[in-house]
From TrEMBL:
Cross-referenced PROSITE patterns: ADH_SHORT
Domain of life: Bacteria
GO molecular function: oxidoreductase activity
SUPFAM superfamilies: NAD(P)-binding Rossmann-fold domains (SSF51735)
UniProt keyword terms in alphabetical order: Oxidoreductase
Identification of the protein by name: NADP-dependent 3-hydroxy acid dehydrogenase YdfG
Cross-referenced CDD domains: 17beta-HSD-like_SDR_c
Protein species of origin: Christiangramia gaetbulicola
Pfam families: adh_short (PF00106)
Record family assignment: Belongs to the short-chain dehydrogenases/reductases (SDR) family.
Cross-referenced PANTHER family: SHORT CHAIN DEHYDROGENASE, SHORT-CHAIN DEHYDROGENASE_REDUCTASE FAMILY PROTEIN
Gene3D superfamilies documented for this protein: NAD(P)-binding Rossmann-like Domain
Length: 289
């Protein structure tokens, strides 16, 4: 039986990924900071008799990652797949966001992946196979205010994954980067409902409105889970995998602009910005419409 470790598995993409792998016959080690909060996951486990075990693990902690993954490997042998999904987000302009928030996001989203990769890699290499899937984001290629801290962490994940893929291919270990667009998760909902009226920058509020409008036609987290499972089950060495109806359009949109055009677009007046969003994406993101 194949096995998988999934981080941040108590909700959203991590929860759906745990269910997808278990239903495919994998032994799933679902890790999270607080298993007591994994109520929905545990309900699915009991209802469908799924082979999922919940494990307390904080990806911010060297000791927690080494202890939890070390125990899993000792008791179950090499892991076939590692899904690095755990992530957090803090939003605000660079001027207004406290530096502690930048550190928090990087600690979880970037260093957390490094900790987990280092914990499984030796066993995968000795076994001569494995698959590591890192959940990045369209924000790993497109940087917008007020998501500078989140984007910076995802840019870092992209660079890390690209280097990792080069290092481990000789050992038959595949690396994949999953790049979701706007997905219906607690994180996206939080961005869409945040009150930015106190911010010095109008950019923050209109970006929230863009999320709010997009979530009127939500893309379920199970779509990302299905893509992660597809990558694990395939023999593909493809590195980057955009996911969701808006992911590839967003990436192509950014690619069509020079860096200077991108900066100018984001610096437009509110009326011009909303008009461009409606023209390019058919989204009327204006507030109070």
């Amino acid at each position: 039986m194949k096995s998988v470790i999934i981080t941040g598995a108590n909700r959203g993409i991590g929860l759906e990924t745990s269910l997808a792998f278990a239903k495919k016959g994998y032994k799933v080690f679902a890790t999270m900071r607080d298993p007591d909060k994994a109520t929905e996951l545990k309900e699915h486990i009991e209802k469908d008799n799924l082979n999922i075990s919940c494990h307390k693990m904080d990806v911010d902690s060297d000791e927690s990652v080494q202890t939890t993954i070390g125990t899993i490997l000792k008791e179950n042998g090499p892991i076939d797949v590692l899904v690095n999904n755990a992530g957090i987000e803090r939003h605000g302009t660079i001027e207004e966001l406290d530096i502690s928030h930048f550190k928090e996001v990087m600690e979880t989203n970037y260093f957390g992946i490094i900790r987990c990769v280092k914990a499984v890699l030796s066993a995968m290499r000795k076994h001569g196979s494995g698959c590591i899937i890192n959940v990045s984001s369209v924000s790993g290629h497109i940087s917008n205010s007020p998501l500078s801290s989140y984007s910076a962490s995802k840019f870092a994940v992209e660079a890390l994954s690209e280097a990792l893929a080069q290092e481990v291919k000789p050992y038959n270990i595949r690396v994949g980067i999953v790049k979701p667009g706007i997905i219906d998760t607690d994180m996206a909902r939080d961005i869409s409902t945040k009150d930015y009226t106190a911010s010095r920058s109008p950019i923050t509020e209109r970006f929230s409105n863009l999320f709010k409008e997009s979530l009127k036609h939500p893309t379920h987290a199970s779509l990302v889970a299905d893509k992660i499972l597809e990558i694990a089950e395939s023999d593909s060495w493809k590195l980057r995998h955009p996911v969701g109806p808006d992911a590839e359009p967003f990436l192509q949109w950014r690619a069509s602009m020079s860096d200077e055009d991108w900066i100018d677009w984001n610096a437009l007046s509110d009326d011009e910005w909303y008009a461009k969003v409606e023209q390019d994406f058919g989204l009327n993101a204006r507030p109070d419409k």
